[in-house]
Amino acid sequence: MARLLIIDDDPDITEILDLYGDFLGYEADRAAGWQEAEKKLAGKHPYSAVFCDLTLQGTSGLQIFERINELDSGLAGRFVLLTGAFVDEGVERVIKARKIRLVKKPFNFEDIKAVLQSMDGRAEGTRNLILQSAKLPAVPLVATRILDLISRENTAIEELQEAIMADSSLTTRMLQMANSAFFRARQSVDTISEAVSVLGFNTIRSITLAVSTRDIYKPFGFLEEKLWEHNLGVSLAAAAIASEIRSGREEAAIAGLLHDTGKLVMNCNQPERYLFLAQSVQEEKVPFHTIETEVFGFGHAEVGSLLGEKWGFSDLLCGAIMHHHGWKNFDKGAGDDVRELSLIVALSDALCTRLGIGYKSPMPELDLGEKELQRLLGIEDGRYGEIVSRFKETFLHEKMHFM
Ligand SMILES: [Fe+2]
Ligand SMILES: [Fe+2]
Questions:
Q1: How many other β-carbons are positioned within 10 Å of the β-carbon of residue 222?
Q2: Which of 170, 207, 255, 284 is most buried by a 10 A CB count?
Q3: What is the CATH number of the domain that holds 108?
């Protein structure tokens, strides 16, 4: 269960915060001052947020903020300062400069709920909302077995081959992918054992994940086909862009394939609402994540990264899925590799959207920041033009191959 740390020497305040947290699905740890808080922070539980009073005996909430920032800068980004109605100018300046969230006393339930939801998409408020309203599918059984074998140190190729071949559709799709432009094996791959030795365990792991998420697309209708087409396009574009800037090509391909998996989960959970939502995207030229947040209170990027966590995707992959629409506001905790991969996926997504890949028609009006992303990744116009025209050719070819 998600946890809060409450630092306050006023038992009435800790009591009420604990109660509100409970309603919102959080368990709370209480500390009367820094000494107790420090012990709690050293424990195993990662905290979703810290609530801390401004005036404590012998110390201040701002000093505690600085100490937490030294220990864990990500957590400092989820620090909430509780103050009285009046805050003096000096303190207010520090709060602004350090971008600390503030809740003034007396607060109510809505204040606490709002501040928890204002934290990034990974914040527990959103997480709980998703978990309450969307069923996240489990990893299919065959995939679980394959992933498990790959994670062990002494797995023999034969063992892995046997596990893959236990499922004929997985076998077919895996060979299809191994021979596609994503993985660019040097020779054509005709058997699973060849695939395993040519591509390596890591690639097989990625292919297994990609193939398994495709099973979420059932029942396969027009919308699902379009979503798959979009993921395919973004994947190929991401691989091309990653090659251009010498970033990991295979990781980019996989991130592209999986970036919008959250849409599939949302669509499977509420097909009628999601179909309606997809129609509004097409007609009103507003991005999916904007309408999703209006309708559901969260977007597909959050759902996708949560599914990724559940399925054991790497942190890099989960991070890129999480940030592919939120690249303008990276949280302090995200590393450079996550940032770069998110930008690659975001640019590929913007390109495919403009070209109408995964949509009924081209969507030039729906600008997802293509120019800005191209600039951030340092790709000049001439090179970008070449990448785009090569991508269009590869996409047509791969689309025939896969669909
Ligand atoms: Fe997306
Ligand atoms: Fe997308």
A1: 10
A2: 255
A3: 3.40.50.2300
Residue-range definition of the domain harbouring residue 276: 141-402
Q: How far is the CA of 54 from the centre of ligand 1 (A)?
A: 39
Smallest Cα–Cα separation from 59: which of 75, 78, 35, 81? 35
Answer whether residue 9 is part of any domain: yes
Query: Hey, which residues does 318 pair with through a beta bridge?
Result: none
Q: Hey, which residues does 353 pair with through a beta bridge?
A: none
Centre of ligand 2 to C-alpha 325, Å, is: 9
Closest ligand by atom to 363 CA: 2
pLDDT tens digits along 128-171: 667 766 677 777 778 888 888 888 888 888 889 998 888 887 88
- How many whole angstroms separate alpha carbon 140 and alpha carbon 8? 46
The answer to whether position 124 is within a domain reads no
pTM listed for this prediction: 0.67
Q: What is the pLDDT of residue 99?
A: 81
The total domain count for the chain is 2
Ligand 2 center–CA 131 separation, angstroms: 22
User: What's the CA-to-centroid distance between 206 and ligand 1, angstroms?
Assistant: 19
Domain end (from 61, 86, 119) = 119
